[in-house]
Amino acid sequence: MATITSPRKAAQPQTERSLATRNVIGKTLILIILGAWAVIVIFPMLWSIMTSFKTDQEIFFSPWALPKTPVWSNFSRAWTTARLGEYLLNTLLVIAPSLFLTLLLSAMASYVLARFEFRGRMLITYIFLIGMIFPLFLALVPLYFVMRTLHLLDTFPGLILVYVAFSLPFTIFFLTNFFRTLPKELGEAATIDGAGQYGIFFRIYLPLAKPGLITMGIFNFLGQWNQYILPNTLMITNDDQHTHYVLSQGLYYLQAKQFYQSDWSGLFAAVTIVMVPTLIVYIIFNDRIQRGMTAGAVKG
Length: 300
Fold this sequence. Notes:
The chain has helices at 7-51, 56-61, 73-80, 84-115, 121-133, 136-149, 156-180, 184-192, 197-208, 210-225, 229-234, 247-261, 264-284, 286-295. By secondary structure, the chain is mostly helical. It has a single domain (73-295), classed as MetI-like (MetI-like fold). Helix 1 (7-51) packs across helix 13 and helix 5 (121-133) packs across helix 7.
């Protein structure tokens, strides 16, 4: 006896095959786009690192070939002669206290905005949001005059305060949402046990916010490490030695000198010295960044 197949049932496998084909094509296109983007981003970095081991002649006459013999003196010359080591120390002297103050102040402000109801709370939140979208270029001229009035031009404390001020809005915005996901019951239990607000914050909530703090610390480190506009505006040294230059300024200054010194191998070595630490930080803390960005999306 012949079996009659429903047209709807016959069309269902065809529809499923069509959807599966579309998914495969879509995933393939995404992989191709991501692969092309990875090549565009990674290839210049690898080429710069490879070029830093070449001589000047190899850079111009065989730019795509591997170095015949790695020239390690390029790095020593960039570190000492180009004074990149001094600029690195200046950068660390600025970034270390800047990160500490940014994370501490942001955590305290975020905790208050996330946990307490008071008049003006939303206004303060909106002010920080405005700080996130305010163009940096519009602040340079008034910032310069303010720093000059306070006698903080060409000083590390002045640059540290500016870094902290410009890092606070986004950090507070992120950590406020993070603190809202932490359980309120822990604070209530600590209050019943007689703990004060400072004890609750530093002993309970601050350790729980460690993933978010690490994430914001890495983001701020990368941003401040590569910052050029602010130090170039505020660190206007009057001496010929440029003793207060940070890495971004020192690298640009070194690049400008190549037009009459022609030490291109030293320049690429300097670029590698500046670039490698940020790559190492990102590679080491990549998983922590992902966990920190997603931890605030889950109610604790």
